[in-house]
Amino acid sequence: MGKTFSSIIKPDNILKFCDAFYNDAKTVLAQNVCSRISHTDVSTSRNRVQECHHYYTHKIEFEGKPVTNQKKSGRCWIFACLNVIRVPSIKQFNLEEFEFSQAYIFFWDKIKRSNYFLNAIVQTANRGETVIDRTTACLLTKPIDDGGQWDMLVNIITKYGLMPKKNFPEAFSCEASDTLNVILHSKLREFAIILHKLVSNNATDNEMRLKPKSKNKWKLFIELLVFV
């Protein structure tokens, strides 16, 4: 009969491990260092750093000042696009520094996403789906987010244009969007339940447009103006 492997961690084994750890000067030193300093910095080899010489045969001309920073938000797609778009404007008007407003695009993106979500809820309700059916449940899981892509930017810029950053500066909720998204999730789910009940009660399109749907959109618009 073959040997069996025991997966139980016995108390006496833990004591042996601890004794071995604290009787080794190297592991104690490693513990002291890693408890106070970044693990990445500690594990970086100084010899390797000294051997790396950043000399290149081709140098790319620096374009666009100042350096932009999305901070604690998922707006990388907005920053990437606006960083490219601003270069011709900087050259054309001979500007030292210039930025298009990332917050402006961010604001309208939230408005458009909220509208899309509410319309999607109405469509699923019209198909007879309940709030626990897969499509509706998926929509309710995360009604809105920060991330996006090229075609979304094209649609927003084509419809709403661009704004210099000086005319529409950053707000706290743009730079750290987690709290804003939590609030929007809550309100959109609240509005989704209201709309779903109206559809279930056979409300007409006019009743949907004139009362709750437009009212909910107005509330979202006001909230976004407050935060962004």
Task: Explain what the structure shows.
The chain is mainly alpha-helical and 228 residues long. It has a domain at 81-227: Cathepsin B, Chain A (Alpha-Beta Complex), CATH 3.90.70.10. The chain has eleven helices and no strands. The radius of gyration is 27 Å and the shape is flat. The mean pLDDT is 86. One of its GO terms (molecular function) is cysteine-type endopeptidase activity.
Note the quaternary state here: single chain
Low-confidence stretches: none
The CATH superfamily of the domain at 81-227 is Cysteine proteinases
Query: How far is it from the N-terminal to the C-terminal residue, by CA?
Result: 70 Å
- What's the total count of β strands? 0
CATH domain class name of the domain at 81-227: Alpha Beta
- The CATH topology of the domain at 81-227 corresponds to Cathepsin B, Chain A
**For the residues shown, what is the average pLDDT?**
86
What is the radius of gyration computed over CA atoms, rounded to a whole number of angstroms? 27 Å
The H/E string reads HHHHHHHHHHH
Percent of residues in helices comes to 55-70%
Q: What shape does the CA trace take?
A: flat
Structural class by secondary-structure content: mainly alpha
